[in-house]
Amino acid sequence: MSIAISLPPVRVRTFRVGNVGFWIGVAICSVVVLAAVVGNALVPHDPFAQNLNNRLVPPFWMEGSQPDHLLGTDQLGRDYLARLVYGARISLLIGITTMIVSGLIGTTLGILGGYFGGIVDDVVLFLITCRLSIPVVLVALAVVGLLGSSLTLVICTLGLLLWDRFAVVARSTTMQVRSLDYMNAAMCAGASTPRLLFREILPNIASHLAVVATLEIALAILFEATLSFLGLGVPAPLPSWGLMIAEGKDYMFFSSWVIMIPGVTLFIFVMGVNFVGDGLRSLLGAERPR
Amino acid sequence: MVRFILRRAALGLLVALTVMTLAFMLTRLSGDLAISIAGPGATQEDIEIIRKAYGLDQPLYIQFASWISRALVGDLGNSYFFKDSVSNLIAARMPITMTLGLVGLGLALLVSIPLGTLAAMREGTWVDRAVTVVTMIGQATPSFWFGLILMITFGLTLGWLPISGTGSWQHFVMPGIVLAMTATPALTRLTRSGMIEAIASDYIRTARAKGLTRRSIIFKHALRNAAIPVVSIAAVQLGFMLGGSIVVETVFALHGVGFLAWESIAKNDFPVVQAVVLVLATIYICLTMLSDILNALLDPRIRST
């Protein structure tokens, strides 16, 4: 007869390919954050200063470029690099604030539904169903179109529309956590409901929420660019990447770099944020929802 | 089963009513509609006349009740700009949006089912990772920008396809590809997880024990079972794609429902805007209901919950 020796399970975090993606993502995001914070101090041009005598100067790798304007100038002669760097600020601002607004709404609904169950849960599920049946881009466009475009309005609208994934994930993870032993223990110890919700449930579903949060930032950035591209997002002189693509659209057949530069930047940044989210998922051991 | 369908239908109706309320409230956000309809040069009398003519002088709840009761019998009001009934406007443009949606969905399934199956068969290997990266690229590409790139490449440089408009089937190729790109990541992931689950199941082990070939196991047994959720999610995706087609239609100047909505928003033509929101939401609600019922028919376990 052999003696079973039970060792505590050792979880070794091996360095996998997924982790390489995570660090690439972190690097991309750091560059963008850095650009947003100090970028405009380093670029010698004002992103709003027009110079109509110096329009559509090509970027440094093309013929006819000027050493003064690394990425060239746009159709109004504004320095493209300065605008690109300022655009990082706008994307980042919208991404993070939208995530906070939608995260607050979604997490609250999800935890309430998952914890209390019954009628509360029915209401939460109903709200999620309603939210999913609303066409997001159309409604966001309509709100901005009717109320006039501003940064705050775009953030509020997107925040009020993009909470569904938070709610779904918070609800299902709360349901899993609710029946675990430490919850019973806390309940037996006489913990109040708010204490249970904030001290026991929230920290234990936080890793799942962190993954959703990064993915939501990416989503919000893409939505903002889409709204701005359609002319109903960030108002005109502000250099949002989506707006830069919209303004460059008329010139894209002759000088395609006008839409390539902001487009590629947007793509790489969103890719980076998604890489971080995906890496967080495997690092924190959070499963994909569903 | 009948009970399940009835309950599901009641839920759908309730959601539709909520969305109607939201769509109505949405268009009343901007304060005084009569002023925006009358335009900048209007006198006070003009505004008063418009307010009377469109019933905007009545209390909100009466406006709401009359809109709902007329919408339920299919009368969505009249457009301020086009001087035509909203139902006619939408009906005339729906075929284009539907064609675009179906082309997009078809292309998306054509890409995502093989990709998802491939990833599931080679789970954990570099093939699987490569497929994950491909889906992430699809997720991170802004659809409007992708559309512009296609226009430059295939429309201008290569000259293979028309750049915008709706004359022939070629006009739907590039918009279809762009719309397909937005749905492919989700469908690929779903096929992958469905296939992984199917491959790990008992009937696959039985099939393997019987000595069937790998190809027969994957295509005849696993894929058929994994296809059920994919097909039902495809219906839901179609709903999302119709909602998202506003971007694609605007980029390629396809005069479908999305383009109509975009024009109407710019012109403050709010009966059209609220009607398009309602129609798209209703289509989505019907599609999800259909997919839920389909799932319940195929899988008896769902009915009891």
CATH topology of chain A: MetI-like fold
- Global structural class of chain B: mainly alpha
The CATH architecture of chain A is: Orthogonal Bundle
- Count of discrete domains of chain A: 1
The geometry of chain B reads as flat
Radius of gyration of chain A: 23 Å
Tell me, what is the CATH class of chain A? Mainly Alpha
Q: What would you say the CATH architecture of the largest domain in chain B is?
A: Orthogonal Bundle
Considering the protein shown, what is the CATH homologous superfamily of chain A?
MetI-like
Q: Sheet bearing the most strands of chain A, described?
A: none
The CATH superfamily of the largest domain in chain B is known as MetI-like
The main pleated sheet of chain B reads as: none
Report on the structure:
The complex is a heterodimer of chains A (290) and B (305). Chain A is mainly α. Chain A contains ten helices and no strands. In chain A, helix 2 packs parallel to helix 6. The N terminus of chain A is likely disordered. Chain B has two domains: 71 residues, no CATH class; 218 residues, MetI-like fold (Orthogonal Bundle), CATH 1.10.3720. Helix content of chain B is 78%, strand content 0%. Chain B contains 13 helices and no strands. The longest helix of chain B has 39 residues. Chain B is flat. In chain B, 40% of the residues are buried. The chains are: A mainly alpha (290), B mainly alpha (305). At the A-B interface, helix 1, helix 3, helix 4, helix 8 and helix 10 of A face helix 1, helix 6, helix 7, helix 10 and helix 11 of B.
Question: How are the elements arranged and paired?
Answer:
The complex is a heterodimer of chains A (290) and B (305).
Chain A: H1 17-42, H2 80-116, H3 118-133, H4 136-147, H5 151-161, H6 164-178, H7 181-188, H8 193-229, H9 241-248, H10 257-284
Helix pairs in contact in A: 1-2, 1-10, 2-3, 2-5, 2-6, 2-8, 4-5, 6-8, 8-9, 8-10, 9-10
Chain B: H1 2-27, H2 33-38, H3 44-53, H4 60-72, H5 86-121, H6 126-140, H7 143-157, H8 173-199, H9 202-209, H10 214-252, H11 257-266, H12 270-298, H13 300-304
